[in-house]
Amino acid sequence: EVQLVESGGGLIQPGGSLRLSCAVSGFTVIHNYMTWVRQAPGKGLEWVSVIYSGGNTSYADSVKGRFTISRDNSKNTLYLQMNSLRAEDTAVYYCARTRFGYTYDYWGQGTLVTVSS
Amino acid sequence: DIQMTQSPSSLSASVGDRVTITCQASQDINKYLNWYQQKPGKAPKVLIYDAYKLETGVPSRFSGSGSGTDFTFTISSLQAEDIATYYCQHYDDLPYSFGQGTKVEI
Which of A55, B7, B86, B91 is the most exposed place for a label (fewest CB within 10 A)? Predict the structure, then answer.
């Protein structure tokens, strides 16, 4: 059975850092493209970042230079390191398997990040 | 960046009704479009990929069509369990942006 379980969210002050984790079972992270998508409270979906099976990465302009996507193959876990957090980063963050590089077919349950003083 | 415009932003329909949602891309995206369903408090679920292909296990009352810049998502006979917000998402080029969503209510 495929499962993606995010963790690491919480309340953080502006300028702070958080690392989100997405523990995967049922497939291997290294052999798949993996994406982070976020959703601000009451708002729509926003693509954040992708890591390709070869290790290349890409980011939305809104997070470029502040967020880093990575993976630990031994733990079969995806990460999102978020630095210099801003109020506008407040959202539920989802990890998703990215089939063929563009269809998000398995999702985690999401983890809420709240950036506020 | 490619912008995706969905309409309407919300709609109210009755069980058994045919429901249609449109999605317009700001430039030609060929057939590089997915449709997702999101129920309150849940992660999105892919229903349609490549503009018209039905994801495995998704009921056949859901369908998609279109290419280029104009796309349509249809529920042929609305069921109570279809109450959700629906999003289109292009994948022509990064960033793979989503439409703003269409909330379907009964």
Answer: A55
pLDDT at position A101, please?
79
**At A113, which helix (H) or strand (E)?**
strand A111-115
> Which residue is closest to B9 within chain A, CA to CA?
A44
Q: Which residues of A touch B42 (CB under 8 A)?
A: 109
Where do we find the tokens 């302009």? A61
Q: What is the DSSP string of A3-49?
A: EEEEE--EEE-TT--EEEEEEEESS-GGGSEEEEEEE-TTS-EEEEE
B82: which 2 tokens? 């279809």
Distance from CA of B99 to the nearest CA of A (A): 8
- Taking only residues 44 to 73 of chain B, the set having a beta carbon closer than 8 angstroms to any beta carbon of chain A reads 44-46, 49, 55
Q: How confident is the model over B4-36, as pLDDT tens digits?
A: 999 999 999 999 999 999 999 999 999 999 999
Indicate the helix (H) or strand (E) that contains A87: none
